């Protein structure tokens, strides 16, 4: 299919077609990402379609969230909501006329038929088939109803759904990820495409739109593998009726496993995209990690830019084995992306966390100049941007956070003696030079037989409230002489009490 010397193919058209229900989750993002990377790698077209035909479950709020998430991630689309395109509209709720027209033609052409079975009748026959050890899908009862039978059912006041007639032969197709797959006819029985109330089902509208939008590759989760033989059969009917030209290629992305080696479900808190956003994952970091769920860049490189991902991504390299979602690895990769930012971008990226209302400091306590001075020291320390708060809060709080565990850990031996000496030496030091501050604490330690590490611990806890943090002497310089010494005085008072 490659039509250019570098192996790419600009005729490729893929789609991302979520239903607007609930919050976006990582499985959904992984699907969007693989479609997008495949389209961008090939110079093809990314179609974004909203499958909102289930009025009971779909919501406008979820629709807005989907768009917002895609924008935040930088997963751009060439056709779809807001950008439009030659196959508009891209919301299925606005395409109902087409589905009605196709359903009518499928029935008229004998590809589909009305089924009058009630739920109770279907259940009873399914049970009986199971008990007899026979396949329990739809038994084809209404396949060949005569006009009289239909009339009789209508007279009885029965309603009907529309069922698609599956051919009585096995379906074979070559999955882009899994290779050749054959499904026997008895495992795929006739299935509903329109509800009794006339509402078209996913089984109809999804392939009808894939055909109308000339989708060449369907890349989606493994959970949809079982609908593929049905959709291929429907596609063949659409081709006969003139609604489709060719059957697209299908590729089913592997399951994502969560904790305890169970499939990551969209209800799993760990699966929520918003969680990663709120914790301060960078879009590039998250995309980098999610791309590794079923794909790999190379044996020795798992941190890469989005540009590198696009350059390298090929659906042929996707692995069929289940992928494991590993939060630690996701955070480590994100940390690398935080380091890759230039300082100005890093500084700006953290600000929403620092300027947001905090439990213990007000937005007006935030100090831009101090923040910009400390930011370069913080950049190598964070896994997620929200970590910034605990690293720099000492600059904005009226008093350092109170952390009894840190206090007890640092205030060992004779902290009063040490802090008194350190305070005197710091008082005389040059506060524009962290080296001078360090020498002051070093000298205080020497007087009390303490190495620098032991000597600086009480100073750190007195000033920042914590035992670990950013480089201490730069921190002191940025906080300033008056505040730093006042905090040491406060600690001495506390020790005396
Ligand atoms: N709306 C379907 C879903 O969200 C699309 C599935 C597909 O890609 O075919 O599951
Ligand atoms: Zn029936």
From TrEMBL:
Monomer. Residues 12-329 form the Glutamyl/glutaminyl-tRNA synthetase class Ib catalytic domain. It catalyses: tRNA(Glu) + L-glutamate + ATP = L-glutamyl-tRNA(Glu) + AMP + diphosphate. Residues 346-492 form the Aminoacyl-tRNA synthetase class I anticodon-binding domain. It comes from Streptomyces indicus. Its EC number is 6.1.1.17. A motif ('KMSKS' region) lies at residues 263-267. The keyword Metal-binding applies. It is an enzyme of class 6 (ligase). This is Glutamate--tRNA ligase. GO terms for molecular function: ATP binding; glutamate-tRNA ligase activity; tRNA binding; zinc ion binding. Gene3D superfamilies: 1.10.10.350, HUPs (3.40.50.620).
């Amino acid at each position: 299919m490659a039509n250019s010397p570098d192996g790419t193919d600009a005729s490729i058209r893929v789609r991302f077609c979520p239903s607007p229900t609930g919050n976006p989750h990582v499985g959904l993002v992984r699907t969007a990402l693989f479609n997008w990377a495949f389209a961008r790698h090939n110079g093809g077209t990314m179609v974004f379609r909203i499958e909102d035909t289930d009025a009971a479950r779909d919501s406008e709020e979820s629709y807005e969230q989907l768009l917002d998430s895609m924008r935040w991630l930088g997963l751009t689309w060439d056709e779809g909501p807001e950008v439009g395109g030659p196959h508009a509209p891209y919301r299925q709720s606005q395409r109902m006329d087409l589905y009605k027209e196709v359903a009518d033609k499928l029935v008229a052409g004998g590809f589909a038929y009305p089924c009058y079975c009630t739920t109770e009748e279907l259940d009873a026959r399914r049970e009986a088939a199971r008990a007899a050890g026979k396949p329990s899908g739809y038994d084809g009862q209404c396949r060949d109803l005569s006009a009289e039978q239909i009339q009789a059912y209508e007279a009885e006041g029965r309603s009907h759904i529309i069922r698609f007639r599956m051919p009585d032969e096995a379906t074979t197709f070559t999955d882009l990820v899994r290779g050749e797959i054959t499904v026997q006819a008895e495992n795929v029985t006739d299935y509903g495409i329109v509800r009794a109330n006339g509402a078209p089902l996913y089984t109809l509208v999804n392939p009808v739109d894939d055909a109308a939008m000339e989708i060449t590759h369907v890349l989606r989760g493994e959970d949809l593998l079982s609908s593929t033989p049905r959709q291929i059969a429907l596609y063949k009917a659409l081709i006969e009726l003139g609604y489709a030209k060719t059957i697209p290629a299908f590729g089913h992305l592997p399951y994502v496993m969560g904790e305890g080696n169970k499939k990551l479900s969209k209800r799993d808190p760990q699966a929520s995209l918003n969680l990663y956003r709120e914790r301060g994952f960078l879009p590039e970091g998250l995309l980098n990690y999610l791309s590794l769920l079923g794909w790999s860049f190379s044996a020795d490189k798992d941190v890469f830019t989005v540009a590198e991902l696009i350059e390298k991504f090929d659906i042929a390299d996707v692995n069929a084995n289940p992928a494991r979602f590993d939060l630690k690895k996701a955070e480590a990769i994100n940390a690398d992306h935080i380091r890759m930012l230039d300082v100005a971008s890093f500084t700006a990226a953290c600000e929403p966390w620092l300027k947001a209302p905090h439990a213990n400091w007000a937005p007006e306590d935030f100090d831009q100049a101090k923040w910009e001075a400390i930011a370069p020291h913080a950049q190598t320390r964070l896994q997620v941007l929200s970590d910034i708060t605990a690293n720099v809060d000492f600059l904005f709080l009226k008093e350092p956070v109170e952390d009894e565990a840190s206090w007890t850990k640092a205030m060992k031996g004779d902290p009063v003696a040490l802090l008194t000496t350190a305070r005197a030496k710091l008082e005389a030091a040059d506060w524009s030079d962290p080296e001078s501050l360090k020498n002051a604490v070093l000298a205080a330690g020497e007087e009390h037989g303490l190495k620098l590490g032991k000597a600086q611990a009480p100073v750190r806890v007195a000033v920042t409230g914590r035992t670990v943090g950013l480089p201490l002497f730069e921190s002191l310089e940025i906080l300033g002489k008056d505040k730093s010494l006042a905090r040491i005085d406060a600690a001495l008072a506390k020790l005396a009490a």
